[in-house]
Design goal:
Na+/H+ antiporter like fold, cell membrane, about 350 residues, AEC family transporter
């Protein structure tokens, strides 16, 4: 109880929670009152996905490489593939209750959360650049599976080359791999001397935070837009759908509980077990970032697949709305639980 009280009264925690909820409500008000047009959310999302989030992803890698940071980052990357394979297998449990299109949609929306649009801005607000770095590495597997397995499951077709293009040419993926390359090989890249407080220090010429701080200043401004843009767009999107109608569907609640509580709990237990046996051990920051990503509402692309291929379009929209609202509460709960586990020494 004392641990929970400490977490809930922490100024940084309260500030991040208040910022998230208040800006989402602001977006809701702006759209509901007609102060912004129906296309505002779409425009904000376009800026977010093509500019702000790539800048955030790239900025996170502009840091010195340390043995523990490198190991955790590499483990996050590998665990991403392990996690999504396990998620794919676990969701077959829905077969006991659902069949056909409903089964495909329940599985698809559970596997693929809004990790980039919804998760990363919250991770940045709560965990800073270290959390963002690990989250981006974990998220590479998500994009690989989303545009391959996800497309096949929703469409019933074979994987197409155009989806490979979507993976490779996605601005966030490009920024992530470019940043990861610089971060990982900075010791091997050509070095330049940079003036620091202690005198001079050698940095890789591509460590732009040191060699071109004026450039990274602009990148930093764009990266800082990620959270407010995402939260405003979420609020505006919520204002367009009837929550009253959505909550009447019991399958939406089954989905939301599975997506926001059960799946993150399974993965948390798995990460703790892996850590205890020394297999892909992750630290508190990495584990928290991954749980936040797993406790997000369904990915826009996944919902788009469902609508495009005429698979439970109404259910998908309702599930997206209800789980978006519940996700805010679920993430706060998970943050408290994880902070308590950290204080108890279970995850460090």
């Amino acid at each position: 109880m004392e641990i929970m009280k400490t977490v809930l009264t922490d100024p940084k925690f309260l500030g991040a929670v208040f910022s998230t909820i208040s800006i989402i409500l602001l977006g809701y008000y702006l759209r509901k009152s007609g102060k912004v047009t129906d296309t505002a959310a779409k425009s904000l999302t376009a800026v977010l996905m093509n500019v702000a989030l790539p800048a955030l992803a790239f900025q996170a890698f502009m840091t010195d490489i340390k043995p523990e940071t490198f190991t955790t980052g590499l483990n996050s990357f590998i665990f991403g593939f392990v996690a999504y394979i396990i998620l794919i297998l676990i969701t077959f449990a829905y077969r006991g209750k659902y069949k056909g299109d409903k089964l495909d949609v329940m599985r698809g929306l559970t596997i693929f959360g809004s990790t980039t649009f919804f998760g990363l801005p919250i991770i940045e607000a709560f965990l800073g650049s270290e959390g963002t770095l690990y989250a981006n590495l974990f998220n590479i597997a998500y994009r690989v599976f989303l545009y391959s397995y996800g497309y096949i499951m929703f469409s019933g077709l074979k994987f197409e080359k155009k989806n490979l293009k979507q993976i490779i040419l996605n601005p966030i993926i490009i920024a992530t791999f470019l940043g990861f390359f610089i971060w990982m090989f900075q010791a091997s890249l050509p070095q330049v001397s940079v003036a620091v407080k202690e005198g001079t220090k050698s940095y890789a010429f591509l460590r732009l935070d040191q060699t071109a701080p004026w450039f990274m200043k602009a990148v930093g401004y764009l990266a800082s837009l990620s959270s407010p843009l995402a939260w405003l767009a979420i609020g505006m999107t919520l204002a367009k759908i009837s929550l009253k109608d959505a909550v009447k569907d019991m399958d939406v609640w089954v989905y939301s509980i599975g997506k926001l509580l059960i799946m993150p709990a399974v993965m948390l237990i798995l990460m703790i077990l892996f850590r205890n046996i020394g297999f892909l051990p992750l630290n508190y920051v990495a584990i928290t970032g991954i749980i936040i990503m797993l406790a997000t509402p369904p990915a826009t692309v996944a919902v788009g697949y469902a609508i495009n291929f005429d698979k439970e379009a109404v259910f998908s929209s309702n599930a997206s709305l209800v789980s978006t609202v519940l996700s805010i509460v679920a993430i706060i709960i998970w943050l408290v639980v994880l902070a308590a586990l950290n204080s108890a020494g279970i995850i460090l």
